[in-house]
Structures are given as structure tokens and as C-alpha cells.
């Protein structure tokens, strides 16, 4: 069962998400919060697998909440899915830097939100398809995500870790990467767990941005 916490300052959004997710047999909405401070308190108490966090909330915003829930000081960091109405808001970039594992627009189809929760709970990352290229392009052009350079990263990564990073940048899931490399899914997860700290990043999404930023793969061109 996937334990989910919902944090949003709009009652209708909280109620709608709770009803949507709670109707799924494999998802349990363990708590709802109306502001950032409450989200952190409930997360500490309830230990959810995934937290759906609004980017703009009173008390503490989504960036602050994400930084707290994903922090290296936590024994069990919480996976954060950012929900936003602002597809290129600076808050989105701040949340990525803070360690968010996924982003979706609030008007995403219900099935996409449910699928995202399941992906995140299984260790995958997710981006709204309309955001992916723009988020990566904007980050590469204007932000320095972390200090590990491409050359230094190449020295730190094993050949298999580099292969996985390239497939990750293509948007593949753990299962797809395992099939491509003819290895077990558990092997892919082990390589990812060792690779992320080497690059100085906290999530799969940050690893993908790192790969584009350091020209390990080509930055998508604007349509």
C-alpha cells in the first residue's frame, strides 16, 4: 500500500485529490495538510511514502517543505511530488534544487496523477510532459544545480552507471533500463543509489538535469 500525504491550501484541491487517490486499491491517503508547517508535522508523524505538495502555501511554501522532507538529515527522506498551476514558475526550479522527485500541473488528467504517485513510490521520477523540455532547458541555461563538473562526474561514474544515466535521460523507467541492459531491476536500483551521491544530486530528475547541463546528452531544442 502506498502511503500518501496531501498538502495544499485550497480545500477543494485537498478534497479532490484525497477522493481521487483514496479510490485506488493500492493507495492510502494517510493525511492532509492546509499549509507547509502542518505538512512537515504530519509527515514526521505519519511517515508517508509520497507527499503531494502545493508549490505555494502559507506558513512554509513548497520549496521549504521539500527541502525539509528530502533533507539528508532525515533518516527516511520522503519522496515529493510538486503540484503547481505555474508551469515555468521559479518555484519549480527551486523545488527541483531542493530535491523534489516529480512535477505535475494541477490540471493534469486524474490518471496521470495516479500514475505519477505509483512511479514515485517505486523509485521513479516524473515530470509533466509539457514541462520536461522547458524545465531542463531553463535549468541548463540559467542555473547551476551542483558543483560536480561533467569531467569530474565521468571520472567518478563506472561504465555501467554512465549507461544507466544515459538511459535515464531518455526518460526510461527502472524496468525499461533493466530490459535494455539485460539486468535485474534491483541491479539498476543499486547502481542508481550509488550514482546519485557521486553526482551530488538527490533525485533521478536532478541526475537527468545534470546530464543535460554537462552535455553528457544534448539539450532538447525548443519546438
UniProtKB/TrEMBL annotation:
This protein's name: Response regulator transcription factor
Sites of 4-aspartylphosphate modification: 54
Response regulatory domain boundaries: 3-121
Matches recorded under InterPro entries: CheY-like_superfamily, NreC/VraR/RcsB-like_REC, Sig_transdc_resp-reg_C-effctor, Sig_transdc_resp-reg_receiver, Tscrpt_reg_LuxR_C, WalR-like
Residue ranges constituting the HTH luxR-type domain according to the UniProt record: 150-215
Keywords from the named record: DNA-binding, Phosphoprotein, Transcription, Transcription regulation
Keyword Iron annotated: no
Statement: the UniProt record of this protein carries the keyword Transcription regulation: yes
CDD domains: LuxR_C_like, REC_NarL-like
Pfam families attached to this UniProt entry: GerE, Response_reg
